[in-house]
Amino acid sequence: MAEDDIMIEDDAIALEDTEDSASFDADVSNIIPFIIERFKRAEDYRYQDEERWLQSYRNYRGLYGPDVQFTETEKSRVFIKVTKTKTLAAYGQIVDVLFANNKFPLSIEPTELPEGVVADVHFDPKEPEQMQASTALTSPYGFSGDGKDLPPGATAKTLSEKLGVLQNKLEPVQDKLREGPGKTPTAIEFSPAMISAKKMQKKIHDQLEESGANKNLRSSAFEMALFGTGIMKGPFAKDKEYPNWDADGNYDPMFKTVPQVDHVSVWNFYPDPDANNMDEAQFVIERHKMSRSQMRMLKKRPYFRDQVIDECIEMGENYDKKYWEDDLSDYAPEHGIDRFEVLEYWGMVDTVMLEEQNVEIPDELKDFDELQANIWICNNKLIRMVLNPFKPAKIPYAAAPYELNPYSFFGVGIAENMDDTQTLMNGFMRMAVDNAVLSGNMLVEVDETNLVPGQDLSLYPGKVFRRQGGAPGQAIFGTKFPNVSSENMMLFDKARQLADESTGMPSFAHGQTGVSGVGRTASGISMLMNAASGSIKTVIKNVDDYLLRPLGEGFFRFNMQFDFDPEIKGDLEVKARGTESLMANEVRSQRLMQFLQIASNPALAPFAKFQYVISEIAKSMDLDPDKVTNNMSEAALQAEIMKQFQAPLPQEQGGMTPPPGADAMDPTGAGGGNIGTGQASVPGEQGFSGNGQAAGTQPPQAAGGQQPPVGSIQ
């Protein structure tokens, strides 16, 4: 195994896989009923949520539920899928904001006052060497009255002791280093905490990329827009297979334990009924639907009991379909029955129950009444039971609401907010279609007393009716039904406007035309878009607080606990960056450019962080700042190169300068043969040949060596 492999096995206490696993499970069965009881309670509690999600899904798909009854007079069954349009628009806005910079919206930064390392060290190229020598620390030790004049902080740890493993990075400039922030704009700062933060951030981004976090985040964002809640799981340890072939062409894969993240559907997530968010949850249960191959793959993961898994497979499939699964699978009754139902439990368990299962409890945890554990069951058998290996013990799930419901775990989505308006739009559109069909066809009235009895009264072109002999009056009358579909369409448009207001997603935001008034101007559209971003602003803030930050903190704790690279560790903090992209890129870019112009003032320039401003301008233009901007050393080199190009050219020998009109870059001074255009000379000017002098000769000097005034008569 490679040195950078993450090992967690030694930090976890798990139920061992013994030969008498089956009899052991039968004898001690307190854990399994405990988990099943909690699962049933969570399932019953979220029944109303499942009904809301089903209705939202039907509106998204354009399906009428079984509770919708049509009369015989209603011929149209049209369904206007405005819910789908607005859901996809909200989903698109969330994805655009989160991935505006083509990076996962997480960053690692040092705390405001990092502890454990020197905050900043610097050297000033302009400072004389003798000044540095005069302030050098001669000894870090002393006592009162020993005659030594110790500078402040001399009794603290030296710079070398504080920097530790980072000391080698300072060796080239060791003699010029001074502790503390730079005093002048020319000072070059070195922040060990910042270096650790950048290394940790890169490692986390690499781990997220390797685990497919972008794809999983997009899946969670879609369910968040549609159902109101997006859920992600992680990080959790997983042995990942890396393809490898030896020199003989034989497949020899490598396995590495890496942190993994997954998207978890709301349909398979059963949280603590008494919790309104993940911080309050005592437990969560994830319901898995697995095939035989997936069950066998569990045996390759840590602490899964191989023999018990084999016994579960021999017992046969046990998947129990829920009532809502037929709706999700378009009423396919045979769908999903050839599977195993596996319940994954994360949460608190009585310590007594764990001890009854012969789980070894560490000495430092034996005084706790409850401990957090991860338990998997299938076919009423324990296939995995392990104490939560993460410290501090936290449930590795994050749930973000689209619209926060303070009294429920699950949030409110786009589809639920416009449920009533979707029903109204469907009703008015069906009425309009039925009326249009009636008004577009002729209604026929027949006086049968004027016709021969027994005739077929159906109508078609060329139809012949036989009349009674000598019967007066018209027998067949045509009647036109009035067309009132325009009134129904007005009501439809009104319902659509109500949908815009209830969702906070106006129609012009997803390409709907017909905007009138102020919205027809560029400034008006900008105002409308800024107003529309108000609702999405809250959504992205929820993503930051409830999803991204917990996920980033989970990866941070994972690496701090299981990664032994000292260069990534420090007093750091995780920051979610979703809200930084809320402002329209055009507006944000304009404001940054305005600030850059103001900061260009020499009096204000020392107070501006130009590197950060330029980096943010690149982000607002959807560019990667790491690829289009220079760091401080690269910027200094680029400035020197620019100075060389801007330096004045050396003069010709003898102090001669190129004649007027000649190309300065032409060594011959001939001007390169280019003939330019200019103004004709006027009388009195140098070079004017109409004053009796040869062209190019100098006019006579006036007294005192001065030129005569222009236009004077000689």
The tally of strands reads 15
Distance between the termini: 102 Å
Structural class: alpha+beta
Largest sheet: 5 strands, antiparallel
Task: Name a few traits of the molecule.
about 725 residues; about 15% strand; alpha+beta; 20 helices; disordered N terminus; extended
Characterise the protein shown here:
- With 714 residues, the protein is α+β, with helices and mostly antiparallel strands.
- Helix content is 36%, strand content 13%.
- Among the domains are: 11-45 and 282-394, no CATH class; 583-643, no CATH class.
- It has a five-stranded antiparallel β-sheet with strand order 7-8-9-10-11. A three-stranded antiparallel β-sheet has the order 3-2-4, with no helix packed on it. A three-stranded antiparallel β-sheet has the order 6-5-12.
- The longest helix has 41 residues, at 522-562.
- The relative contact order is 0.12.
Question: Strands, helices and their partners?
Answer:
Blueprint: H1 21-27, H2 31-45, H3 47-61, H4 82-98, E1 106-110, E2 121-123, H5 129-134, H6 159-163, E3 178-179, E4 188-190, H7 192-210, H8 213-227, E5 229-242, E6 254-264, E7 269-271, E8 283-290, H9 292-297, H10 306-315, H11 325-328, E9 340-350, H12 351-356, E10 370-378, E11 381-387, E12 397-401, H13 414-417, H14 419-439, E13 442-446, E14 476-480, H15 485-503, H16 522-562, E15 572-576, H17 585-599, H18 610-620, H19 625-628, H20 632-646
Antiparallel strand pairs: 1-15, 2-3, 2-4, 5-6, 5-12, 7-8, 8-9, 9-10, 10-11, 13-14
